[in-house]
Amino acid sequence: MRKPSVSVGQAISNNAGNTTVVGQVRKVDSQTFTGRTYKAFWYVPEIKRWVKSVEEYYGSGGTRNEQYVSELQSFSLDNK
Question: Which residue segment(s) compose the domain that 60 sits in?
Answer without folding.
Answer: 34-74
